[in-house]
Structure to design on (869 residues):
């Protein structure tokens, strides 16, 4: 899957809340006790047309084995979001089995049903209800089987800890395993089940030390670079200085003089292979290659001007009322331009893959968020049918959207094919910064009209390169126009989805400007938001944040301030309030605390949701205050952690997360939403603390001091 | 230069004939198959490759093999005694201080060395001592809590 397709999914309809009425469970398959269910009718999971092997219309299935173990097959992957555990907990809960009797089989393109990719905060919101429904279906089927075996009516039986037992006499029982012995039963989930109430949960939401957590703390957890195969060679690559460089000449002599080195030049890829990774790195450094230097069109200093010059209006996202009349009606008109620089995903695991050929079949472990997309990319590259590629399941050391793109998998496969040996390629950190698909730099121009009474009456919003995720108005502005500007090839390097794509950037701009308006008419920013917000869920979420934070209009102390931001992402409403202290002489910001309130519908796994929201806020402080890429057009200057700062122990802040737990609403996204409000809340808190309105992220000391009033 | 080098690895004496200018991280990973020690940045700025050398936390991505001649090296694989996890490992599990888990071995090794040097560190001291270990998933607060819990156990407090 290419970046544009991924962006379409990301920037497209991921924001739409899931409608439970559209759920539909279908189709069938055979062997053992199988329970099949699908998420396809939700519309996001595209059917893989070429995928003839897996044409069945399901995206997850369960199997109760004869030995009583439960297998759950899904094309999703684990990259730290904890779904291996949280999905197993949900399954154990509704199926009434022990957690350790469940095997999660994830992301194996031979064994698992098709899945478009793990992104968009979709796993819990889409999979949770269907997984639970399938578990309930399995439980009811097992009770039915037990009823026939024990000759007790179904209503006198219940499921308990891997057994079906008689309600009145617990000595009358039969295990799940023995019920499925010698049978081949296939069930498809068709009915809307009665879910267990969260109050009755015994497993969901409990802290547990999952098998996979024990592997992680003992160093036994395996990632793509931990696969070691007999005869495997390590690849190191001699890279061009900039994106767009073409190979002019290459002198391989010094590298080839190193014993055991294989040098390979495949198109623009200049690679060395060696059985020892130290030697491979040395040999790559010994390659002398000459590359062309592309023309410099913009740098990190000029990029915002460049984007506005080059961007063309591509789409009007929302239009209401009459802007001219709106501005005429306003008491004050304020316009501003907001900027956001490029950001790296910076997963601690770089893009990595290990591959070999078994005859004409490619077997690969890759740090990919989209195993099926990677399989398709590889099959396309080698012009072979999909079944000639097997992407094996493996853990990821972080993803955040960056591992939806997998150039390293193509590179390693080319080298494995050419060399005829198993090959491992782990990008160096410098390669990772060079070839990461950065979060887009973006410009937001906002012209807004407000009345002295506190009502926003006009909003003209031009968004350059940040997309439309989460930009729809929720302040009930009667006269409004939101337009997107972009151009193919506008960025000097690859760009792509970065945790809640685009929404961090646009939420920062909108929420900064809301504060600018509130300040102009002398209203408290929280009261101003409450006066305008037109969405009742967002209103109650803000109220929850206010209460949790114990917000007051007063400044919390000398050089201190509080900032608020609201947003909407992946079906979830978010309100963040942050308190900061700004050093008046250095401009250095210390974040003192952050409160995040979320309305994500029913909270199915409060603990998992809390951990994800905490991670979001912590990561978000990085993009708000530190993260930025220096570049000279295609030449990326920021190439390692010595000059790419993100949140660390000393700059993290206490985070408190609160949920509106709406039992009657379907679950919504949890892996991304909380991150979107961090930039806006921090910029607003910095203004409250110091009087400096910084219109650009990251909000760095230099900009704070320059904007000091 | 090829040389014979001897050191103790996870409690066992080992001998290796190698070019001693080689980077220790890769020797541990490929020479000994100890893949729990991770590559993150290659310049000692993220801490994913942290190991103990004579009880002190070191970044193995910047160390030549010759620097460990005669020394005691402990990697994440050598921390637990059989099935018995180290208090820091138990505390990580208890606080769910790992998300993707990739930085976790380095975090744990760094924390173990920190507690060795200062068994009762203040919160401020924990933050200072751990500050060079990066976690992109943002589990810092949970890691701090885990180090505090492990410190209590090490000092005779409640065992997890």
């Amino acid at each position: 899957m290419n970046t544009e397709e991924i962006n379409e999914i990301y920037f497209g309809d991921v924001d739409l809340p899931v409608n439970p009425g559209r759920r539909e469970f279908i189709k069938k398959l055979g062997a053992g006790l199988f329970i099949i269910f699908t998420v396809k009718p939700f519309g996001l999971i595209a059917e893989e047309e070429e995928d003839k092997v897996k044409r069945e219309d399901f995206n997850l299935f369960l199997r109760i084995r004869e030995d009583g173990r439960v297998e759950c097959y899904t094309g999703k992957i684990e990259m730290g979001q904890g779904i291996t555990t949280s999905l197993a907990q949900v399954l154990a809960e509704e199926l009434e089995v022990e957690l350790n009797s469940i095997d999660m089989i994830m992301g194996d393109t031979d064994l698992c049903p098709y899945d478009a990719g793990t992104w968009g905060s979709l796993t819990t919101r889409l999979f949770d209800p269907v997984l639970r429904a399938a578990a309930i279906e399995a439980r009811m089927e097992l009770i039915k089987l037990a009823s026939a075996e024990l000759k007790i009516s179904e209503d006198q039986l219940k499921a308990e800890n891997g057994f079906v037992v008689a309600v009145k006499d617990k000595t009358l029982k039969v295990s799940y395993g023995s019920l499925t012995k010698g049978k081949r039963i296939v069930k498809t989930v068709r009915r809307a089940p009665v879910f267990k109430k969260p109050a009755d949960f015994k497993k969901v939401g409990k802290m547990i030390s999952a098998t996979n957590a024990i592997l992680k703390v003992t160093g036994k957890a395996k990632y793509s670079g931990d696969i070691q195969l007999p005869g495997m060679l390590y690849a190191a690559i001699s890279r061009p200085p900039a994106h767009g460089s073409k190979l002019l000449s290459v002198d391989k002599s010094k590298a080839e003089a190193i014993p055991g080195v294989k040098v390979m030049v495949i198109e623009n890829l200049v690679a060395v292979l060696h059985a020892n990774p130290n030697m491979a790195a040395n040999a790559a450094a010994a390659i002398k290659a000459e590359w062309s230097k592309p023309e410099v069109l913009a740098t990190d200093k000029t990029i915002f001007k460049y984007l506005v010059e080059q961007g063309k209006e591509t789409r009007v996202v929302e239009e209401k009322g009459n802007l001219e009349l709106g501005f005429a009606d306003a008491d004050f008109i304020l316009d501003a331009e907001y900027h956001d620089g490029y950001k790296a995903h910076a997963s601690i695991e770089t893009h990595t893959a290990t591959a070999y050929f078994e005859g004409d079949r490619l077997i690969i472990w890759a740090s990919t968020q989209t195993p099926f997309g990677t399989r398709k990319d590889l099959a396309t590259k080698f012009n072979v049918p999909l079944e000639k590629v097997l992407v094996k399941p493996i853990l990821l050391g972080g993803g955040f959207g960056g591992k939806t793109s997998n150039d390293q998998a193509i590179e390693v496969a080319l080298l494995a094919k050419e060399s005829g040996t198993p090959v491992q390629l782990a990008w160096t950190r410098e390669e990772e910064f060079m070839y990461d698909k950065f979060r887009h730099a973006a410009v937001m121009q906002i012209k807004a009209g407000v009345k002295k009474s506190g009502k926003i009456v006009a909003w003209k919003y031009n968004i350059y390169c940040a997309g439309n995720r989460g930009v729809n108005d929720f302040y009930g502005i009667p006269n409004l126009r939101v337009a997107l500007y972009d151009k193919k090839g506008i960025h000097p390097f690859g760009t792509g989805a970065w945790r809640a794509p685009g929404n961090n950037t646009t939420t920062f701009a909108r929420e900064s400007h809301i504060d600018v308006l509130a300040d102009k008419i002398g209203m408290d920013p929280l009261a101003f938001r409450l006066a305008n917000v037109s969405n009742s869920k967002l209103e109650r979420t803000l109220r929850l944040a206010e209460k949790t934070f114990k917000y007051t209009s007063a400044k919390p102390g000398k050089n201190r301030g509080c900032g608020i931001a609201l947003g909407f992402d992946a079906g979830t409403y978010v309100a963040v309030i942050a308190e900061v202290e700004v050093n008046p002489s250095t401009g250095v910001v210390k974040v003192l605390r952050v409160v995040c309130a979320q309305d994500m519908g029913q909270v199915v796994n409060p603990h998992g949701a809390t951990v994800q929201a905490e991670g979001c806020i912590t990561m978000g402080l990085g993009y708000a205050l530190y993260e930025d890429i220096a570049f000279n057009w295609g030449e990326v200057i920021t190439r390692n952690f010595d000059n790419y700062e993100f949140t660390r122990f000393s700059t993290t802040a206490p985070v408190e997360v609160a949920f509106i737990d709406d039992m009657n609403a379907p679950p919504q996204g949890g892996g991304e939403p909380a991150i979107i409000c961090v930039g806006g809340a921090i910029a607003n808190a910095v203004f409250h603390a110091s009087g400096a309105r910084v219109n650009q992220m990251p909000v760095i000391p230099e900009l704070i001091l320059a904007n000091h009033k | 230069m090829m040389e014979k080098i001897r050191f103790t690895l996870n409690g066992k004496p080992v001998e290796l004939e190698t070019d001693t200018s080689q980077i220790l991280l890769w020797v541990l990973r490929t020479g000994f198959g100890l893949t729990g020690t991770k590559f993150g940045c290659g310049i000692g700025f993220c801490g994913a490759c942290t190991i103990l050398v004579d009880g002190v936390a070191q970044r193995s991505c910047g160390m030549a093999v010759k620097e460990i001649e005669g020394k005691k090296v402990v990697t994440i694989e050598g921390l637990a005694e059989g099935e018995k996890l180290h208090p820091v490992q138990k505390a990580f599990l208890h606080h769910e201080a790992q998300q993707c888990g990739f930085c976790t071995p380095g975090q744990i090794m760094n924390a173990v060395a920190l507690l060795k040097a200062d068994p009762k560190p203040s919160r401020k001291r924990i933050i200072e001592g751990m500050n060079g270990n990066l976690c992109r998933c943002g589990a810092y607060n949970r890691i701090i809590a885990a180090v505090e819990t492990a410190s209590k156990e090490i000092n005779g407090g409640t065992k997890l």
The mean pLDDT of chain B is 96.
